[in-house]
Amino acid sequence: MGDRSPREERHRSRSTKDDRDREPRDSADDRKRKYREEETERSSSHRTGSRERGHRRRSRSPTSRDRSRDRDRERRRERDGHRDRDRDHRSRKDRDESPNARSSRRKRDDDNSDNGGRERRRRHRSSEGRHSHSRLSPTRDLEPKGAKSDTQRNLVKHRGPLPSQDDSFAVSNGGEPEKPKEKPNFGNSGALAAASNSVTQADGTTITLKYHEPAEARKPSPRDEWKLFVFKGQDIVDTIDLGSRSCWLVGREQAVVDLLAEHPSISKQHAVIQFRYTEKRNEFGDNIGRVKPYLIDLESANGTMLNGDKVPESRYLELRNKDMVQFGSSTREYVLMLAPKA
Predict the structure, then answer these.
(1) Is the pLDDT of residue 141 over 50?
(2) How many CA atoms lie within 13 A of 242 on its CB side?
(3) What integer pLDDT is reported at residue 281 of this predicted model?
(4) Is 267 in a helix, a strand, or coil?
């Protein structure tokens, strides 16, 4: 059992080699099958290893997070250092520059910034316009074909020509502007009224009326029963219903007057009692219109008296209930009365 001799060792190694040679060798199919099994085991182990590595990569350890934060801080410090160096460089450059060069450079920078701001505003407006058009396009399709847009409604169309600049040039040159041409007047000239205010008698002579009714002449309302009582002393000589017409001409000219007065002191066309429509505003701001009687003297020779006072010529004076009128030097009294309403 002690140490073996070299001869025994050689003999033992030879015997083991012979034993190995005697063992049966694997066939080619067995070797292919073993190779496939080894490949499948190797690929499955590779997949599991890559999965574990990806999981480990996703779940960072606190030390890796701290390292990434440190790197971010270092980058920020580097950027801040670059900015500080640029600022110091600019300040040194400003100190070295002359005042004129510094002001021109600042002006140029301001212009550039203004141009950049204008360009940004222009782009912003154009983008807003595009967005607004895109938003309004569905509603525009819903509008009827004949409807006008807001911009078309706001446009003011000038039908006439624009004013001439000759007047402004004349003033600047020390001259006078050209006077505008007189426009045609289509108002009443009075010729037709004068012709209509003439009455032709049977013998061919014409009498021109001194009075023409105004535009506001109206007949009194049937609810207002105005009457004129003619007194001579204490007796009632005549009663005249004034509601039948709007104008009553008093005088001696029998061919044209409505109320004949034969006293010699009374003119041929002495005075007129005229009913006129007037409007007045009450305390509530509403306009209330009424037809009222007025007295006007036609420039008579002996005048007209109202309640004992002489009335002015060619001027309307309102007549009220129970007013007394006298014409010329006649003693007859004309009393105006308004019948009480039932």
Answers:
(1) no
(2) 31
(3) 85
(4) coil
Closest CA to 316 of 272, 269, 253: 272
Non-local (6+) Cβ contacts of 297 within 8 A are 270, 271, 303, 304, 311, 312, 313, 314, 315
Using alpha carbons, select from 193, 209, 196, 214 the residue that is nearest to residue 294: 214
Domains in the chain: ranges and CATH:
216-338 (2.60.200.20)
What are all long-range contacts of 187-194, with beta carbons under 8 Å and residues at least 24 apart? Answer: none
pTM greater than 0.85 (yes/no): no
- Beta strand ranges found along the chain (DSSP E): 198-200, 206-208, 226-232, 235-241, 247-251, 259-260, 271-281, 287-297, 304-306, 309-310, 317-318, 324-327, 333-338
Instruction: Compute the distance between CA of residue 293 and CA of residue 316 in angstroms, rounded to an integer.
Output: 10
User: Which residues, including other chains, have CB under 8 Å from residue 310's CB and lie 6 or more apart?
Assistant: 303, 304
Measured CA to CA, the distance from residue 239 to residue 227 in angstroms comes to 7
* Whether the Cβ atoms of residue 79 and residue 85 lie closer than 8 Å to each other: no
pLDDT of residue 328: 94
User: How far is the C-alpha of 96 from the C-alpha of 107, rounded, in Å?
Assistant: 18
Token pair listed for 48: 């599991």
Q: Find out whether 253 and 268 touch, Cβ atoms under 8 Å.
A: yes
DSSP 313: B
pLDDT tens digits, residue range 106-137? Answer: 666 666 666 666 666 677 666 655 555 445 44
Cβ–Cβ under 8 Å, residues 270 and 335? no
Which positions ≥6 away from 321 have C-beta within 8 Å?
336, 337, 338
What three-state secondary structure class fits 233? coil
